[in-house]
Structures are given as C-alpha cells and as structure tokens.
Please model this.
Amino acid sequence: MAKLNCRVGDLAITVRSNIPDNVGLIVRIVDICMYLDEWKDLEGPVHIWDVDLVCEDSRLVCFTDQPIPERLLYKSGPIPDAFLQPITPPINLEELLKAEALEDEQKKGTEGLQ
Model:
C-alpha cells in the first residue's frame, strides 16, 4: 500500500480536485471515509478522508448526478488523500521527547533557585 499524505488530526490544503473551486481549501482530517473507495479520475480503490473545512467562509463544492447538475456547498465531506498536502509538521517522536526532557530540566533548575 502506498504511503498516505495525511493522518487524522492533520491540517491540510487541497492541491488537486476534479472541481477547480475545491483547490486551495484548508481542511482538518477528521476520520477515514468508510463509504467511498473509488473516485472519478483516480484508478482503483483510493484512501479517502472525511474532512472539515477550517476557514469559516470556505465551502466544499459538489455537483449532483442529475441531468441538470446542481451545485451543492458543504462545510465537510470526503476528499481523497491524493488530493491533499499536509501543512501540519510531521511528528518526530525523538525530537519531541528531547524537547520535553529539556523543558523538565529547565523547570527543575528554576525551582531550585526559588
């Protein structure tokens, strides 16, 4: 399986879409989308996320499959991982543990001065 771009909790920007209005949206990855596994213009089953839009005035654009398509706007919805680029820095556990240890040492050092 290919490496995913995003993970639950990430902030991401949409960098690709079948609908140009959906490019450049800032989203938060909420969960794995369980009800879709195929996407127009993408081959085979793809990983799809449920996302919430972050910006108050942003909307995710979708169209109905009616003879006359209707434009629908949503504050959340499904987006393929392939269409997303994370903007949340990746977690480096080793660096995080070092930073926490340094912070603890600094706290202990200032407590001794009081």
